[in-house]
Design a protein that fits this description.
Layout lengths: L1 E5 L3 H12 L3 E5 L3 H8 L10 H8 L4 E4 L10 E4 L14 H14 L6 E5 L7 H14 L7 E5 L9 H6 L3 E5 L3 H10 L1 H5 L4 E5 L1 H31 L4 H8 L21 H14 L5 H22 L8 E5 L14 H11 L3 E5 L4 H4 L7 E2 L3 H5 L4 E4 L18 E4 L12 E4 L3
Parallel strand pairs: 1-2, 1-4, 2-3, 4-5, 5-6, 7-8, 9-10, 9-12, 10-11, 12-13, 13-14
Bound molecules: 1,4-dihydronicotinamide adenine dinucleotide and uridine-5'-diphosphate-glucuronic acid.
1,4-dihydronicotinamide adenine dinucleotide binds next to α1 and α4.
Length: about 425
């Protein structure tokens, strides 16, 4: 099948490379010329395991990139993989989606045969039919249903395991208005749907849009609940990890997403939970539990710093922050809890020395005044205390020999030789 993918970021690039790998002919349409040149040179514009090989294999043949939307006319299906960021008030900002839909609609004006536009970006219920479709219709001059169809196909991949998550998903969701449209998507995804373990959900467009938000809201709330239980465990002097490991043995709960500590960050959970809260309010519903999910999450970095302050007077103290990425395996620092920890430490007068194996250069522009080390041990040298903000595997079995005071507060439950420390505190254990 001939497929165009608008937006070549984490999702668009991964989907493009994987669909090319499955045998489709794919073209990425992207405004960033560097990304276009990188893909056409056979290289990956982002770091994801298994991505570079796939782009190298297919670039120039089944995978191409361009800045020109006219390329959509050579394709049967277009996926919109554009950013759907958070506006200043927390609500969903659709400006980029609207601009992309306009360009796509204009390009489709010159197309003779039928075209399917699939929204893959995370958007609130109603966006595909009430925002994207009317723009496509107005710009192309073709009524929806008479040459252009729309569908919604949310994406559940995680950063760091994007390729594997796309090719081996738990579920694939098609939100369509007709079985003909669903059939096109079934054909496109057929190798993925045929594998054992992939559930196919076929539903209406509005439900597909909401499934994505409900999924992320559930996972974020699960971590916040685990963190609340963890805080209670800590108050009782109990180990939350032992407690929740046992709880997770209940099939109805599952042992996954049970790691308590500093909480959730990243480019998706925060913006998606906030968009759903704002959307729910707009619909006249007060999302109290989702509000609490965010409040508990926002409290964890402050709790970590308060715990450290119990052992180290922070004013003028040299404090090592280990880990800056929002989770291990990525250099993404968007809404990383580590940044809240740094803010809280500097607000209390501490001198921060930070280390991360890959994310330092992403933090430096916004935090030019803190110190950066080129190894964990370098950050720990002469430190009066340290905190773990990201559970990078390389932080297991650290040596604390160089610390001025061997105080470690762990926000992520790394493997530590507690006997090598003067003070070891876990955030929830
Ligand atoms: N990053 C992730 O792990 C996941 C993201 N999502 C959702 O997928 C959507 C895309 O997210 P990401 O790929 O992370 O975003 P991203 O920011 O990594 O990539 C978006 C790309 O679109 C390009 N772009 C912006 N305006 C454009 C335009 N008018 N025409 C063509 N290209 C344009 C940007 O230059 C950028 O390369 C969002 O709705 C996000 O919530 C869903 C699941 C996972
Ligand atoms: O919509 C999205 O973009 C994606 O958001 C998340 O993926 P991602 O943000 O890449 O990262 P996760 O692995 O889900 O972790 C999110 C945050 O939760 C934290 N977390 C996760 C699990 C856990 O047990 N405890 C915990 O604190 C992580 O440290 C991280 O900060 C979802 O897992 C994906 O399914 C979804 O597609």
């Amino acid at each position: 099948m001939h497929v165009s993918i608008v937006g070549s970021g984490y999702v668009g690039t991964t989907v493009a490379a994987c669909l090319a790998d499955l045998g489709h002919d794919v073209i990425n349409i992207e405004v960033d010329e560097d990304i276009v040149a990188t893909i056409n040179a056979g290289e990956a514009p982002i770091h994801e395991s298994g991505l570079a090989e796939r782009i190298a294999d297919h670039a120039g043949t089944r995978l191409r990139a361009t800045t020109n939307y006219d390329a959509v006319r050579e394709t049967d299906v277009t996926f919109l993989c554009l950013p759907t960021p958070q506006a200043d008030d927390g609500s969903l900002d659709l400006a980029i989606m609207e601009a992309g839909a306009e360009s796509l609609g204009r390009a489709l004006a010159g197309k003779d045969d039928d075209h399917l536009v699939v929204v893959k970006s995370t958007v609130l219920p109603g966006t595909t039919e009430d925002v994207v479709a009317p723009i496509l219709e107005a710009e192309s001059g073709t009524p929806i249903g008479e040459g252009i169809e729309v569908a919604m196909n949310p994406e559940f991949l995680r950063m760091g395991t994007a390729v594997q998550d796309f090719l081996e998903p738990d579920k694939v969701v098609f939100g369509t208005a007709s079985d003909e449209t669903a059939a096109i998507l079934r054909e496109l995804y057929s190798p993925i749907l045929e594998r054992d373990g992939t559930d196919l959900v076929e539903t209406d467009i509005r439900e597909a849009e909401l499934i994505k938000y409900a999924n992320n809201a559930f996972l974020a709330s699960k971590v916040s609940l685990v963190n609340e239980l963890g805080n209670v465990a800590k108050a009782y002097g109990a180990d939350a990890y032992e407690v929740l490991e046992a709880v997770g043995l209940d099939d109805r709960i599952s042992e996954r997403f049970m790691r308590s500590g500093l909480g959730w960050g990243g480019s998706c959970f925060p913006k998606d939970v906030n968009a759903l809260r704002a959307g729910a309010r707009e619909q006249g519903y007060e999302p109290e539990l989702l509000d609490a999910t965010v409040a508990v999450n926002d409290g964890q970095p402050r709790r970590l710093v308060a715990l450290l302050a119990d052992h180290v007077p922070l004013e003028g103290a040299r404090i090592a922050v280990l880990g800056l990425a929002f989770k291990p395996g990525t250099d993404d620092i968007r809404k990383s809890r580590a940044l809240d920890v740094i803010d809280a430490l500097t607000a209390r007068g501490a001198d921060v020395v930070a280390y991360d194996p890959v994310a330092i250069e992403n933090v430096r522009p916004d935090y030019p005044d803190i110190e950066y080390a080129d190894s964990a041990e370098g950050a720990l040298a002469d430190a009066d205390g340290a905190v773990v903000a990201t559970d990078w595997p390389e932080f297991d079995d650290l040596s604390f020999d160089g610390m001025a005071r061997k105080v470690l507060v762990d926000g992520r439950r790394i493997d530590v030789d507690e006997d090598a420390l003067e003070v070891y505190e876990g955030l929830t254990w």
